[in-house]
Amino acid sequence: MHAHGYTGHIDPAHQGHYVSHPEGHPVVIDQVTARQILDSRGYPTVAVALHLEDGTTVEASAPAGASTGVFEAVELRDDGPSYSGRSVHKAVTSVTDEISPALVGKHWRTIRDLDTAMRELDGTDNLARLGANAVVAVSIAASRAFAHAAEVPLHVWLARVTDSAERMPVPHFNVLNGGAHAANPLEFQEFMIAPVGAVDEAAAVEAGAEIYHALAARVKARFHTAGLGDEGGFAPDIASPEDAMDLLVQAIQDAGYTPGVDEVAIAIDPAANGFYEREGQYKIAGRLIGRDQLVDYYVKLLDQYPLRSIEDGFAEDDHAGWKLLFDAVGDRTQLVGDDLYVTDMRRIADGARNHYSNAALIKPNQIGTVSATLDAIETARRLGMASMVSHRSGETTDTFIADLVVGTGVGQIKTGAPARGERVAKYNRLLEIADENPGLPYGLAFASAEEFAAIDN
Questions:
Q1: List 231, 316, 378, 451, catalytic entry
Q2: Which pTM does this prediction carry?
Q3: Does the annotation mark 363 as catalytic?
Q4: pLDDT class of 228 with cuts at 50, 70, 90
Q5: Where in the chain is the domain with CATH 3.30.390.10?
Q6: Does the annotation count 201 as an active-site position?
């Protein structure tokens, strides 16, 4: 992997090149309905259904994050007595009373047109009035409607509207949880295994499951418990990132695999917002360290372990820290911006221009619409950055992100441990796509500035 840096110019008003042409027949919606359901953390979220003119119904539901960036699109919650203030009846009403009348009866030709109508109806910069949880659920369901109208699977429709080469992704299994996702003293939030060297998706999922079970045996033997964090990974009573990574290396070997950046690699999401103390100071395992020391610490981890990716290694506003880390290791590992970018094309462009990272995390609910999500992927790709599609800690069984990662061909996804229904649903969808499309390549896909050049030309 090479360090990427953007030295050109991007127009902040740029809206992406794709979806300016219709895909298949237009979508006509008869009604949009919504209801409150529970996510994987037991909190309410929004589920929607689009009832189409041809009698078809397409559905979607919105995930929710526990570790959220301040620049994310805003979830609308009720702040009343129900579910300790977390109920979403206001967002449901947004769908039924405002979004549905605005969408019904019109001939929608592109997802961008539909998403733009919802953004204009909302009237805020961050979807705070209608609620990003309401809008993103409708947008995802609408994507399914457009795929239905085009008479192709969702991942194929996504490939068409982005002019992408489809690819089966390397799954990044979050098998050890800390930070905001677990009740242990481990500051780093996610420790993942990535079967980079697997021959195909089925082999990758098999490796992830086998290593997960090998890790379970070690955790049970050492800690006499196998409690899980929010994303299905184990949450043992450890505080040291080295302890976590030692466990992963041992579990990889126990399962009969080889630890290595080209075999079964490790990826981490420190989620540094969670242990950022004050200006340039971070607290890890009870010790306060500065930016330079934190960079040195990451370098040490890279030297000692088969580590291929570091996500949110510095806090979202600590741009000096991001730049230090990029300069130190951007030519030897993937540096992913999540809270730094919140799937916002403008923030991604700024990060590329300033050399903050060489990859961006992609979460549709962070930005609120499918079209804006595709803009973020396009921007990253055009500016020489990789992308990784991601779930949230509060998930449903909606599998949209599995089709998204295949259709856009970005080559990597993280969607939790190979356990718990809301996580397994995504892995099973990937296996289904792979079975139905045996010719699709598997593996990492790095950005190519030419890949989007021909879109709509």
A1: 231
A2: 0.92
A3: yes
A4: confident
A5: 27-150
A6: no
